[in-house]
UniProtKB/TrEMBL annotation:
Protein's name according to its UniProt entry: Cysteine-rich receptor-like protein kinase 10
Pfam families xrefs: PK_Tyr_Ser-Thr (PF07714), Stress-antifung (PF01657)
Membrane protein topology class: Single-pass membrane protein
MF annotations from Gene Ontology: ATP binding; protein serine/threonine kinase activity
Transmembrane stretches, start-end: 279-303
Annotated signal peptide: 1-21
Start and end residues of each Protein kinase domain: 343-624
Keywords from the named record: ATP-binding, Glycoprotein, Kinase, Membrane, Nucleotide-binding, Phosphoprotein, Repeat, Serine/threonine-protein kinase, Signal, Transferase, Transmembrane, Transmembrane helix
GO biological process, one term: response to stress
Annotated source species: Rhynchospora tenuis
GO CC terms of this entry: plasma membrane
Compartments where found: Membrane
Sequence ranges assigned to domain Gnk2-homologous in this UniProt record: 26-128, 134-243
Keyword Transmembrane recorded: yes
Length: 673
């Protein structure tokens, strides 16, 4: 069998790593891109050694240190963290081993993160110290499940970790706490927990970081005897055996944790007759009440149906931005049927995952009517979501909602009509594509960026779109872009940075890796989708259909290979004539920054808008994007390694490729769009 040289080198590197103590296993490692290497005896290497010599020494105080050495392009940022129950000598030894193995497992890489059971170490050529982002990188859980009352077990674990998080956040200068819950059961008399943040976090930052992990717990290990979630900035772990040293700072009596009420049981004994009589009376009264209630509802529906439909005034004004009034959003079904010629096929503009869109004509202007399919179980929820969100948003790069109709089983949402339909109808049509000269494409890029900036930072609401793609960018008569389809959008509070969903929905090829694999979404998820869209506009190629070409395995690979080879002109859509190459190169650079693997490395949309409008602003060098498969046949760069182990305290190291086997990936439900 033939083995590529790269695989042989990886095996040799594994063999050269010193054996690690079983009591402090290597959990995982993450290396920077191969094309961002430094050379031996270089300034960058010297800065790494200088920085970590200082950090390891400074960490003896409270187990944490962070800092930066050098200037760009040889700037090195670093962070070290030891578990709160380690002493200074063990901490120093663990970090020294971590640095040694970081340099061996990630040879000459400008970025590396190493996780051990008792310590972690990270360095990068990007300034990350001031960021509070905590990308989830380690998931361990026991494959042994709790067999007796697992729901209550999970509830006690959640309370235990929450109480420990509060203590670590507001009572510990090291942002560390250990906790015990007692009296759960004879099988599990004690449940042990541990939480920790980096010591530079404020109390609220630590609490927010840990709460994000706690919210993510049900996605990964419900009913497991043990588990841990780890990022660079915070982590937690729980087990049914003791795994730390020292006395617990938080104690919880499991019998005091609230549980759902027990089902009503029939009483027995000499006093049971009276109780049985009460139960029988209740059993008779409740069904009788329900029957009366249903009869009243049925009678009301019959009475309502006999009344003539109220003629709702169509009070919207196409020249006005005031669509906030309730009356202006209520549209009559008969009016919309007349406008669309009873939803005639000749008026159909297109069809999406939840139904068709029709063009309609009213005396005061044209409209677009989204008619949700009656067979769509999710349609009504998406319609309400879209109405609530879009009706409150006012921006020239967001589509305007004009009204809603919910009559006779119909679910209709009415928008302003945009004659040029969606961006993908131009990009995927060889004849119409030529109409998109660089000036128009640049206008579309800037408009979409400003629309996303408004959603993320400038509106009274913070909106995460979650399904940004070419088919959801509509174009008006002047080719002004307008972001549409907010059915999957989510509302964030002002200080919220990330959320977790159990059901991942959206479109393959546009999803950020942390969202596609683990349901974690934020404003940086939309930034990733914008980067894909930007590359599609430049290349005129669709990311999801890129496999049809022989140029590369996917659009990100195609872009990265040409970027590193200095052949950016080969990326440009052949239909573009006489376009300014310097603007194209800058846009490709920005797109690659938007699709970085780590969300913390992606810019915010306000930063993207500035990058697009300024030709003098310097841009940092991008790392290789995720899911990027090179022609050499290297493995996909997966965002997160998921380890299943019999004991969550002894995770095996990942292999050098970072590949996740079939039975190591959590199942995610994806809805086609």
């Amino acid at each position: 069998m033939y083995f590529p040289l790269s695989i042989i080198l990886c095996l040799l590197l594994h063999l050269s790593v010193p054996a690690l103590s079983d009591s402090n296993p290597l959990l995982n490692k993450f290396c920077g891109g191969d094309n961002n290497n430094y050379s031996d005896n270089s300034t960058y290497q010297s800065n790494i050694n200088q920085l970590f010599s200082s950090l390891i020494t400074n960490s003896t105080t409270n187990g944490f240190a962070a800092g930066t050495v050098g200037t760009v392009p040889n700037l090195v940022s670093g962070l070290v963290l030891c578990r709160g129950d380690t002493n200074s000598s063990f901490c120093s030894s663990c970090l020294s081993t971590a640095l040694e193995n970081a340099l061996q497992l990630c040879p000459y890489n400008r970025a590396a993160t190493i996780y051990y059971d008792y310590c972690l170490l990270k360095f990068s050529n990007q300034q990350f110290i001031s960021s509070t982002d905590n990308p989830l990188q380690i998931i361990n859980y026991s494959t042994a499940n709790v067999t007796s009352n697992p729901v209550r077990f999970d509830q006690i674990v959640a309370d235990l970790i929450s109480n420990a998080s509060a203590w670590a956040s507001y009572n510990s200068t090291r942002r560390f706490a250990i906790a015990e819950a007692t009296n759960f059961s004879q099988q599990y008399p004690v449940i042990y927990g541990l939480v920790q943040c980096t010591a530079d976090f404020t109390g609220s930052e630590c609490q927010s970081c840990l709460q994000t992990l706690i919210d993510a717990k049900p996605l990964y290990f419900q009913g497991s005897e043990g588990g841990r979630l780890m990022g660079v900035r915070c982590n937690f772990r729980y087990e049914v055996y003791t795994f730390y040293s020292g006395q617990p700072t938080v104690k919880l009596d499991a019998t005091a944790v609230a549980v759902p009420p027990a089902p009503l049981l029939e009483p027995t004994g000499s006093s049971g007759k009276k109780a049985r009589t009460t139960v029988i009376a209740i059993a008779v009264a409740i069904p009788a009440f329900i029957v009366c209630l249903l009869a009243s509802i049925f009678g009301f529906c019959i009475w309502k149906k006999k009344r003539p439909f109220r003629k709702v005034l169509v009070k919207y004004n196409f020249e006005s931005d005031d669509i906030g009034g309730a009356d202006s959003l209520l549209l009559d079904l008969s009016t919309l049927k007349t406008a669309t010629n009873n939803f005639n096929e000749s008026n159909k503009l297109g069809e999406g995952g939840f139904g068709a869109v029709y063009k309609g004509s009213l005396p005061n202007g044209d409209i677009a009517v989204k008619r949700l399919s009656q067979s769509s179980g999710q349609g009504l929820g998406e319609l309400k979501n879209e109405l609530v969100l879009v009706a409150k948003l006012q921006h020239k790069n967001l589509v305007r909602v004009l009204g809603v109709c919910l009559e006779e089983q119909e679910k209709l949402l009415v928008y302003e009509y945009l004659p040029n339909r969606s961006l993908d109808t131009f990009l995927l049509n060889p004849e119409k594509k030529a109409e998109l000269n660089w000036r128009r494409r640049s206008t579309i890029i800037n408009g979409v960026a400003r629309g996303l900036q408004y959603l993320h930072e400038d509106s009274q609401l913070r909106i995460i779109h979650r399904d940004l793609k070419a088919s959801n960018i509509l174009l008006d008569a002047d080719m002004t872009p307008k972001i549409s389809d907010f059915g999957l959008a989510r509302l964030f509070s002002v200080d919220q940075t990330v959320d977790v969903t159990k059901q991942v929905v959206g479109t393959f090829g546009y999803m950020a890796p942390e969202y596609a694999m683990h349901g974690l979404y934020s404003i940086k998820s939309d930034v990733f989708s914008f980067g894909i869209l930007l590359l599609e506009i430049i290349t005129g190629k669709r990311n999801n259909g890129f496999w049809e070409s022989n140029e590369a395995e996917d659009l990100l690979s195609f872009a990265w290979e040409n970027w590193t080879a200095g052949t950016v002109p080969q990326l440009v859509d052949p239909t573009l004539q006489h376009c300014p190459l310097n603007e194209i190169v800058r846009c490709v650079h920005i797109a690659l920054l938007c699709v970085q693997d780590n969300p913390a490395d992606r810019p915010k949309m306000s930063e993207v808008v500035i990058m697009l409008s300024s030709n003098t602003m310097s841009l940092k060098a991008p790392f290789r994007p995720p899911f990027c498969i090179t022609n050499a046949g290297s493995e996909s760069n997966l965002y997160l390694q998921v380890n299943h182990n019999q004991g969550s305290g002894s995770s095996r190291p990942s292999d050098m490729s970072g590949h996740v086997s079939q039975n190591e990936v959590s199942i995610t439900e994806l809805d086609a769009r």
